[in-house]
Amino acid sequence: MYPFDKAETKEMPFKVSPTESKPVQMMFQKKNLNYMNIPDYGLQILELPFVEEELSMFILLPEQSTDGSDPLLKLEKELTLERLNEWTDRENMLVHSDIHVHLPKFKLEEEYQLKEPLSELGMTDVFCPSQADLSGMNGGRDLFLSEVVHKAFMEVNEEGIEAAAATGAVVCAGSCGSEKEVHFTADHPFLFFIWHNKTKSILFLGMFSSPQ
Question: Choosing a second label site near 58 at 20 to 30 A (CA), which of 36, 49, 69, 163?
């Protein structure tokens, strides 16, 4: 992701809900970026390409709720793979030459214990000392898995994005131009994902709903 100027970062309120706000360090940049506005879904989509454009971060910013409903929950229910591919297709997005981006600095870190869900999917023998066969690792039958842990980490700041994920057993174009000034202000909950542009494989997917 192209860097933000640290001098432009300011404290701003992040609207956790229509009635509650929390302070957040808000970054700013003005740049030519791919952008899509979808009024029927009350949704703005912004692409933040990485420097070599092999990867991109997309931000899906729904309009704030005025009736107390959860706009992220509504978006998740309406989001399909077909819609996502259509909305993020660069041939459908517009390159705006004057887009003002406000994006909060944030850091997310999650850990998931996967033994139970994997067991429910039928992966059971490997957790049983008498049935596990991990002889390919040490030539014996004395190894088994006690747990499988998935960890994910992501930090977005002025320098760009640092992201990593690992799973272990106790072991990661052509568009139409526009001169219209656009403001993309992510000062309320949004979804985001990072994907590989060539294959459209999603590498990270998450939401930011409240500063720490």
Answer: 69
